[in-house]
C-alpha cells in the first residue's frame, strides 16, 4: 500500500526551512502532495497577505524534486484538507507540537487512520524573519509585484 503524505504551508518567500520540510517529508511517504495555502487562508491564519502570488507559489513548489504534486489548499482547518485529499500522514513543523490546534488535529486525524509527523522548525530562517529583514533594510519600495522582483 502506498503512503500519501501531505505537507501544507504558505511557501511564501521560499527558503531552506521549506526545502528541509519537503525533503524530510518525501523520505517518509511514497507520494508527497504539497498543499499551498491560498492567499485568503494565509491572511486568516497569519493576518498578512503573501508576497508571492498563489499561482507562482504553486509553480515553485511543484518544481521541487521532492514534491509529487502541489495543490491549492483553501482550508484553515487541515482536517478539511484531509477530507479533500485523503492523505495518510500530514507533515508540520514542530512549532505546532503540543499546541491546542496540533492536539486537535492529531485527534481528528487519528480517528480516520491518519497521523501527524513533526519536523524541527527552522528557527534561524522563516518567511516572517525574511519579511522583517526586507522591511528593515529599506530595499522594498513597494510590493514584490510592483518592483518586478
UniProtKB/TrEMBL annotation:
SUPFAM superfamilies: Nucleotidylyl transferase. Signal peptide: none annotated. Pfam families: CTP_transf_like (PF01467). The keyword Kinase does not apply. Residues 6-132 form the Cytidyltransferase-like domain. Keywords: Nucleotidyltransferase, Transferase. The keyword Nucleotidyltransferase applies. GO terms for molecular function: nucleotidyltransferase activity. It comes from the Bacteria. This is Adenylyltransferase/cytidyltransferase family protein. The lineage of its organism: Bacteria, Bacillati, Actinomycetota, Actinomycetes, Pseudonocardiales.
Amino acid at each position: 500500500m502506498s503512503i500519501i503524505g501531505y505537507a501544507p504551508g504558505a511557501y511564501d518567500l521560499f527558503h531552506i526551512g521549506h526545502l528541509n520540510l519537503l525533503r524530510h517529508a518525501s523520505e517518509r511517504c511514497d507520494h508527497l502532495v504539497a498543499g499551498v495555502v491560498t492567499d485568503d487562508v494565509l491572511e486568516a491564519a497569519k493576518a498578512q497577505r503573501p508576497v508571492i502570488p498563489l499561482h507562482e507559489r504553486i509553480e515553485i513548489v511543484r518544481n521541487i524534486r521532492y514534491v509529487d504534486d502541489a495543490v491549492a489548499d483553501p482550508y484553515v482547518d487541515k482536517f478539511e484538507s484531509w477530507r479533500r485529499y485523503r492523505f495518510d500522514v500530514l507533515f508540520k513543523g514542530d512549532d505546532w507540537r503540543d499546541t491546542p490546534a496540533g492536539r486537535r488535529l492529531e485527534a481528528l486525524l487519528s480517528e480516520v487512520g491518519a497521523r501527524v509527523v513533526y519536523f524541527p522548525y527552522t528557527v534561524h530562517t522563516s518567511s516572517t524573519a525574511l519579511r522583517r529583514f526586507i522591511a528593515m533594510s529599506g530595499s522594498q519600495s513597494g510590493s514584490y509585484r510592483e518592483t518586478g522582483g
